[in-house]
Amino acid sequence: MDFQVVVLAGGTSKELIPLVSKEVPKALLPVANRPVLSYVLEFLEQSNLKHLIVVVEGEDAALRVGGWISSAYVDRLHVEVAAVPEDIGTAGALRAIGHYLTAHDILVVSGDLVCDVPPGAVAAAHRRHDAVVTAMLCSAPVSGPSESGSSGGKDKTKKPGRYNIIGLDPTKQFLLFIAAGAEVEKDIRVQKSILRAVGQMEIRTDLMDAHLYAFKRSVLQEILGQKESFQSLRQDVLPYLVRSQLRSELSLDGAQAEENGNDKVVSLDNKAMRSQLVANTSSPSFHELCAMGPNGSAPFPRNTHKCCVYIASKNKYCARLNSIQAFSDINRDVIGEASHLSGYSFSAHNNIIHSSAELGSKTTVGPQCMLGEGSQMGDKCSVKRSVLGRHCRIGSNVKVVNSVIMNHVTIGDGCSIQGSVICSNVQLQDRVVLRDCQVGAGFVVSAGSEYKGESLARK
Amino acid sequence: MDTPRRTSRVIDPKVRHVGFFAPPSPGRTPSGPPAPAAPSPVSGSPSGNSLSPVMIPPPRHASDNLSSALTLHQPPSRRVSIPVTSAVRRPSIDNVAVVGSYNQSETVLATSPSAISPSSRIGDGEFSEDSVNWIRRTNSGKFSSSVPTGGFDVALNKAQEVSEKGRGKGPEISNELASNAKPLKDKMTKAERRALQESQRATKAAAKEGRKPASSSRGVAPVHEQTAKSVKQPSQKKDVPPVAPVAPSIAASEKKGGDRPLEKDRKKDAPPPRMQFDDKNRVEKAKRRAVVKKTEARNRVELFRHLPQYEHGTQLPDLEAKFFQLDPMHPAVYKVGLQYLAGDVFGGNARCVAMLQAFREAIKDYCTPAEKTLARDLTAKINSYVSFFTECRPLSISMGNAIRFLKARIAKLPLNLSESDAKATLCSEIDRFINEKIVLADKVIVRHAVTKIRDGDVLLTYGSSSVVEMILLYAHELGKKFRVVIVDSRPKLEGQALLRRLVGQGLSCTYTHINAVSYIMHEVTRVLLGAASVLSNGTVYSRVGTACVAMVAHEFQVPVLVCCEAYKFHERVQLDSICSNELGDPNIISKVPGRMDVNYLDNWANKDNLQLLNLLYDATPSDYISMIITDYGMVPPTSVPVIVREYGKEHVFM
Question: Which residue windows does the record flag with biased composition (Low complexity) (chain B) (predicted)?
Answer without folding.
Answer: 40-53
